[in-house]
Amino acid sequence: MKEDFLRRPRTVAEYGADAIRVIGVLSVLVAAIWSTPTDAGILALATPALMLPRALGMRGGADLAVGVTVLVAAASNVFDLYRSVPGWDLVVHFVCTGAIAATGYLVLARLRIVPAQDSPEFRRRIPVVLCTILGLAVSAVWEMIEWAGRTFVTDEIFVTYEDTIGDMALGGLGALAAGVLVAFVRLERVRGAVKL
Predict the structure, then answer these.
(1) d(CA 8, CA 77)
(2) Superkingdom, according to UniProt (predicted)?
């Protein structure tokens, strides 16, 4: 993982993914100085999710897609898009949960808990089932964090029963879609590629 994290970018997508990481870190600093601690905290929570795809050695396009998705999800909270744009919350839950579930599958493959995409033991049904489960679990944890934030930190966080169920349902569907993607599209870059 260290080698993947420290390697130089080679493609336009890899440079773009690194630019998103820089924007993510800078946005935490900007929010800490000129916005509220809640906004800075939300953006800081996104930072590990911006770094993980690089450490996993994701292909440039997948890395960029995860980074943009996570940053948009965090920024949408800061700019109050979840309340001001009808349905935006559901779109972001679908896409972001899917991105997190696919990344989660790669983490489990790196830990040798599940077969990697290039392994002879890999079966397409495995990521379809596992990503869906991961997505539903992540959705449940996220909704608990929202509840705790509203209960113990600030009542500015919007939480209702209908919102929670809708978010989890769309997150589960996004994770299912991500599982299908992992089943058919290689997300990690090929190891041992020629260095330029």
Answers:
(1) 32
(2) Bacteria
**The dihedral sign for the CA sequence 99, 47, 53, 115:** negative
Looking at the chain, list the stretches that DSSP marks H as alpha helix, in order from N- to C-terminal side.
2-6, 12-34, 37-56, 60-78, 81-84, 88-110, 125-148, 161-184
Residues contacting 150, CB < 8 A, separation 6+: 157, 158, 159
Report the distance separating Cα 125 and Cα 141, nearest Å: 25
* pLDDT band at 3; cut points 50, 70, 90: confident
Burial class of residue 116 in the structure, from the number of CB atoms within 10 Å of its CB (0-12 exposed, 13-18 middle, 19+ buried)? middle
The greatest distance separating any two alpha carbons of the chain, rounded to the nearest whole angstrom, comes to: 53
pLDDT, tens digit (0-9, with 9 covering 90-100), for 38-58 = 899 889 999 999 999 999 999
Cβ-based neighbours of 134, under 8 Å, separated by 6 or more: 100, 101, 104, 105, 175
> Are 58 and 100 within 8 A, CB to CB?
no
Contact 108, 119 (CB under 8 A): no
Per-residue confidence (pLDDT) for residue 160, from 0 to 100: 78
Q: Say what the pLDDT of residue 146 is.
A: 82
Residue 194 predicted with pLDDT over 50? no
